[in-house]
What we know:
By secondary structure, the chain is of the alpha+beta class. The chain has 2 domains: 1-100, Orthogonal Bundle (Arc Repressor Mutant, subunit A); 102-170, Ferric-uptake regulator, C-terminal dimerisarion domain (Dna Ligase, domain 1). It is built from 7 helices and 5 strands. The strands form 2 sheets. The protein has a 3-stranded mixed β-sheet, with no helix packed on it. A two-stranded antiparallel sheet has the order 1-2.
Amino acid sequence: MKTVPNIEEFAASNNPVVRKFSDYLDAHGMRKTTERYAILNRIMDINGHFTIEELQQMIDGDGFRVSRSTVYNTIELLIEAKMLRRHVFEGMQAQYERITLPHTHLVCTTCGKLKEVRDTNFAAFMNARRFNAFNTDHYSLYVYGTCSTCARKLKRARQASNDDSAKKRK
Ligand SMILES: [Zn+2]
Ligand SMILES: [Zn+2]
């Protein structure tokens, strides 16, 4: 069984991510509750994207009792503190990820699989891009299409139906 992290120790640690969250809570006069740090602790262990349901399951698995509304509110705080980002891909429920290096999201519209790529050409273009009367803070690029697995399946399905109609014609 996984050992339950000591949240008091975690909250008092010198980790820059933990400190950033503590500073944000202090600056906004918010209480530094064990629940909020338990949620942050969990999120810091996740690589990549997660949904609220997935996060809740992990926290439950750690043995913490944290209500859904607390999970939701803490996520909102982390977004406001610029530590977490929300993505809403077409036709999918909201996903969250810690703010890391900019990357492009390739979304398969058939199976919903998500691929993250670092596109240095696009990043260079966006870093140089200036908009009139607007200061860019960050940007997100979602590319919708078909993943190679789905493309193969579609091709096979098409071939099968072609074979079928060829047989019928005979
Ligand atoms: Zn796919
Ligand atoms: Zn991502």
